[in-house]
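input
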Amino acid sequence: MLNIPLQAVPSQVLTASLGGQSVQLEIFQKQTGLYMNVLVNNAAIITGVLCENINRIVRSLYLGFIGDFVFVDNQGNADPYYSGLGGRFSLIYLEQSDLPSGIG
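output
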């Protein structure tokens, strides 16, 4: 597991090498919640995913992404919102070894 550092801003783009992949994360707040896009080598893996507390983002092995992401509320059970990013809400990259066998 790796903690992905975030800023408490309504929209941000991050790039990192995760699981041997060149990953770009686009995280943005809308009135209906916080959303995330995941791209690998500039190709969309999954887009427009509503971010929820302790609910994996990618979830599907067939998408070809190695690992997964999950938001964690460090102070309760709320879904993440931008003003709590990097403090109350953490984004965690789950490595393949962190996932149950056959997932991610």
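quick obs: The CA atoms of residues 10 and 82 lie 5 Å apart.
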